[in-house]
Amino acid sequence: MPSARSQGEPLSGRFGIVAGETLEYTLMAKNEQQFLISSDSGYGFVCQFEDMLTRQKAGKALVRLPSGAKLLEPQRTSSMESDDCLVITNEGRMLVFPLKDLPILSKGKGNKIINIPSARAANREEIVSQIIVVPESANVVLHAGKRKLTLTTKDIEHYRGERGRRGSKLPRGLQRVDRVEVEMKGTTADISNDDSTLGDVLEE
Fold first, then answer.
1. What number of CA atoms fall less than 13 Å from residue 166's CA on the CB side?
2. CA 94, CA 4: separation in Å to the nearest integer?
3. For the sheet containing 128-134, what is the strand order?
């Protein structure tokens, strides 16, 4: 790719894009870097960056999506042994489980991440809205409109369960999460004036 052009180079010159196809995400990494690959239907797996590479201009099939499902943004991992997978549905259900419970595949559909009733999934009434990889000992900041909730490692335990379970409901007023951030120790995420903790919200 060019490094000195103001607007870059048209990606259509690099990829064979046919009518109806769109470019969703771009990423770069070393071959051995692992990513969480998932869909909003609640399925996913872990693969290496080199599994995404191909010399074919038309690309390669990496993810098998259920009918109507959409790919979610790939999430970079730091350690399969200690990272957690945090997933939230548009109904405000959240589940946290060890990332190592997902398979490492070179392609496919993956395993069930969170349980969405089949009828609701088919009608797309309930879908995965947020998914993120959480490193060990990190806090998580949930953003729902103008509200913000910081979950400490202790708070996160309330939502921990086995992969593929239904998850637990988030507090009222924080169920429509539109953004999730990871907050490592020694850093802050000062995005809004609402610095609630889980205890504060539950007391409300």
1. 6
2. 44
3. 128-134, 84-89, 93-98, 168-169
Pairing of strands 196-197, 147-151: parallel
- Name residue, tokens 């009222």: 172
Determine the Cα–Cα distance for residues 8 and 36; give it in Å rounded to an integer: 28
β-strand pairing of 168-169 with 93-98: antiparallel
| 43/72 Cα distance (integer angstroms) | 10
Please give the structure tokens belonging to residue 158. 């309330």
Name the pTM for this structure: 0.86
pLDDT at residue 58, as a whole number? 86
CA 108 – CA 71 distance, rounded (Å)? 12
How confident is residue 198, by pLDDT bands cut at 50, 70 and 90? low
Distance in angstroms (rounded) separating the CA atoms of residues 89 and 94: 7
C-alpha to C-alpha distance for 119 and 112, rounded to whole angstroms: 15
- pLDDT of 199 higher than 90: no
Is 139:145 a contact under the CB 8 Å cutoff? no
Q: What is residue 93's predicted lDDT score, i.e. its pLDDT?
A: 97
CA dihedral 183, 130, 116, 102 (to 10 degrees): -60
